[in-house]
Amino acid sequence: MSGNGKKRAPLVAERRYPAKSTAKKPAPKKKPKPAARKKAAPKRTKPKGIIGWILFPLRWVVRILWAFSWRVGLVCALIIGGFSLYFASQMPPVDELLDGRARGSVTMTDLRGDIFAWRGDQFGGKITTETVSHHLRNAVIASEDKRFYRHFGISPRGIASAVRINMRAGRGPLSGNGGSTLTQQTAKLLCLGVPFDPSKWEDEAAYENDCRQGSLWRKAREAVYAVGMEIAYTKEEILTIYLNRAYLGAGARGFEAASQRYFSSSAAQLTAPQAAMMSGLLPAPSRYAPTRNLQRAQDRAATVLRLMEEQGYLTPAEAAEAQANPATLSATARANTATFFADWVMRSTPAFLTEDTTEDVMIRTTLDKDIQAAAEEAMISVFENEVREGSEAQAAIVVMSADGAVRAMVGGRNLGETGAFNRATQAQRQTGSSFKPFIYATALDLGMSPYAMIDDAPICWARRGSADWCPSNYTNDFVGPTSLIDALKTSRNIPAIVLSEDVGRELVRNVATGFGIHSDLAAGPALALGVSESNLLEMTGAYAGILNGGSAVVPYGLTDLRFQGDTESLLDTNGTGIGERIIQERAARELTWMMTKVVEEGTGRRARIDGWQIAGKSGTTNSSRDAWFIAFTGDYVTGVWMGYDDNQPLTGVTGGGLPATIWRETMVRVLEGKQSTPLPMSIPQEPVATGILQSDGGVIADGEILNLLNNILGDAGTN
């Protein structure tokens, strides 16, 4: 058979069963990977509806702000962290930060050694969180920073809360509540590490005001410094610094000084009510100081106690007991006496040891707190019971011993006010008839007898360029011839002028100046009427010179002064204010006897105290602008002045009236329970005959006294 010429593949039967074969199966083909798809760009959805179109720009702005803010925040965090680390590296040891005072303190004790006044900045000594009462530590944290142990120096939550409170109160966001943590408050107390520089700040007050300024920049620096403190110190160390440096009013720096100041106890012994009161002072020490307003301080303490209970520091029972028994001041703090005396001591001591001291100074004084209390009680009693309500009249009291040691001083009715105007030492007022004893002292020292007679009759003195000066007596009458004794006890003006003119004004001025009257004394005959000015302390000291026998007296209040902890005194004194002799002792003793007649029979009868010998003199100036009463017993000289600060006349008041009453009320309290001390006085022998001293220097007399008086007047001359 013929074919097509092409070779065909041979037919092979279909293999139904695979034969065993050693041939390898071909590897399965891998599925090709799908080609990587390019990420499709997000579709820009168009805003839907009107709301979408409104929100679209806002979303865009938010995205931009977020992208910007987190980057800025990161940069700020890095900057804050860097500065915080820098501040942390500069922090000194904790012990160097505990006493941050730029000036020292003055502590005053009375004659028995008991503390009665503080001045300057008090620092009671180092305390720590372990040594103080746990109630104090808890009270501070509860009232000032309850998250203290949980934050890192600043509290964003606290700041936000403070801003909200300020805005609700209608203030600026940074005005009022600051939201500061305890760490930030401590940073402020440290003035962010800037020390006091006298060349940059006028004084410490200006320095502290600068440290407390609340500008935004200052707040930012404060926050950074606070974070640095958290890095450098532990929480307990930060709290220790705060407890030692916080100002708590009344000059107390730190809780130990304040505990001593208000409660006379250590900070380690504070009870819950006391700790709450102390912590309550922190926002406004002057306002909440218990020495200023105890009730306000107790109300503030009640709030702190509630916070302590809410935060678990007190059980309900403990809180209820504390609320029912609020803290009260110690006896020393409660008395708050002798502020005028303390201010006088501060002014009379060199400033580098008082106001400008950088050390802690201890001053022992002559103050007797019992006598001080008696004077203050007398002042209050008389003004409450004898003076019309609403009167603005003032008074001052000084009590001293015969050697000039001041035992009490009241400078006005504003008792307890530190730095107030002291009418006992700073008010220069006309002395009136209280000046007359110096005239009689001069006459007696020259040898004149108390029984000598003077003519109380009308008289005039010529004045160049003006009308004659014709003085009169307070009673506007004349009694004719009168003895020196009667003229003094009834405070007759004409006899005093005549006597002054006859013994010589210059001698009278010398005696008054010698006894301690340092102001310029009048040159004319009116000198005898007390037209010259003096202050109560000077006048009381001058009368002390009469009591001690005629020697000058310098009033003093210091007996010892030293730096705290030192045994060596800085005061060089013989412990007395007695100086040189001014008049003979005989003359002083006779004058003392004459002055007892003033109290027993004359213008000072209101001052009489049964069983006591008292010598004194009243004084009332022209138009009753000033009223004086100064008198002494065998132990004390007490002076009282009364008047208005604006020099307006008193109504119905003379020296023998209310001032004598104040004197008596003071001395009744001072002398209570004491044994009567006789006055050092001499009763002169009454002469057989006396002469009558006249204004022209002539003497009408008989007997031997005539020659004696003529010799006296001849030696003294007349003016």
Q: What gyration radius follows from the Cα positions, in whole Å? A: 44 Å
The poorly predicted ranges are 1-8, 10-25, 699-719
**Mind describing the biggest β-sheet?**
5 strands, antiparallel
Average pLDDT, rounded to a whole number, is 84
Terminal Cα span: 195 Å
Give the neighbour order of strands across the main sheet: 7-6-19-18-17
Backbone structural class: alpha+beta
Please report the total strand number as a whole number: 21
In short:
The chain is α+β, with helices and mostly antiparallel strands and 719 residues long.
Task: Provide the fold topology.
Layout: H1 49-90, E1 105-109, E2 115-120, E3 122-123, H2 134-144, H3 156-168, H4 182-189, H5 204-211, H6 216-232, H7 235-245, E4 252-253, H8 255-263, H9 272-280, H10 285-288, H11 294-310, H12 316-324, H13 331-335, H14 339-348, E5 361-365, H15 369-385, E6 394-401, E7 406-410, E8 429-430, H16 436-445, E9 453-456, E10 461-463, E11 466-469, E12 480-483, H17 484-489, H18 493-503, H19 505-514, E13 533-534, H20 536-547, E14 551-553, E15 558-563, E16 578-581, H21 585-600, E17 615-620, E18 626-632, E19 636-643, H22 658-671, E20 692-693, E21 699-700, H23 705-716
Parallel strand pairs: 1-5, 3-4, 9-20
Antiparallel strand pairs: 1-2, 5-15, 6-7, 6-19, 8-13, 9-12, 10-11, 14-16, 17-18, 18-19, 20-21
Helix pairs in contact: 1-6, 2-9, 2-11, 4-6, 4-7, 9-11, 11-12, 15-22, 16-18, 16-19, 16-21
